[in-house]
Amino acid sequence: MYLKTYTLIFIVFYCVSAMANAAKCDKYKTKLEKIQSQQRLANSVKKSNKLKERELKAFKKWRKCQQGKLKK
């Protein structure tokens, strides 16, 4: 019985922690989506390459934030 209770408490805290972390990373996700929307527009080759680099950087930062590895 105690094992089930502790497991349930752990799962609840884990879910709350994950939701709080996701809310913290929303600004990085928004920036990534903005860059991706710019990529869908007609661009020169030079600008397309720069947007691709920016997208990769933004994606890496967003993923690090989600994983909790982003420096504060």
UniProtKB/TrEMBL annotation:
**Keywords recorded for this protein, A-Z:** Signal
Q: Which domain of life is it from?
A: Bacteria
Question: Does Signal appear among the keywords?
Answer: yes
Which residues, if any, are the signal sequence? 1-22
Name of this protein:
DUF1090 family protein
